[in-house]
Amino acid sequence: MNEIDVTLSVVIDNTTSECEQVIQELMEKHRLAPDTMELILERVLANIRAVKCRLYASAIISKQSCKEEKVEKIGTVEEMCKDLQEKGIHTTVKSLEAGDH
């Protein structure tokens, strides 16, 4: 996950706590049964968990697409060898894998 995803996750967690407090205050003010409060909290928390799941899924998809872009831009090892040879640097796949240039 990147910094934005982590920040959003923290914001969601903080919002969850605030929601619980507000709901509890409303329940006490209107003298509703504790069972009703629990049902409302469960529904709110389920929605919040769904948002967090979508956030994590988005982060994973984003990270995967970044990896795919890097692979497309870098190309194969053979293509890199050919590119280096065109620039006057003679190398082989084995020397690239070993870190020798």
Provide an overview of this structure.
- With 101 residues, the chain is mainly alpha-helical.
- It has a domain at 3-72.
- The chain is built from four helices and no strands.
- α1 (3-29) packs antiparallel against α2 (34-74).
- The longest helix has 41 residues, at 34-74.
- The radius of gyration is 26 Å and the shape is rod-shaped.
Termini, distance in Å? 34 Å
- Spans of at least 5 consecutive residues whose pLDDT stays below 50 are none
Shape: rod-shaped
How confident overall, as mean pLDDT? 70
Number of strands: 0
Radius of gyration: 26 Å
Helix content: over 70%
Helix and strand layout, with pairings?
Elements: H1 3-29, H2 34-74, H3 77-86, H4 93-98
Helix pairs in contact: 1-2
Output the keywords:
single chain, 101 residues, mainly alpha, 4 helices
Question: Brief description of this entry?
Answer:
This protein is mostly helical.
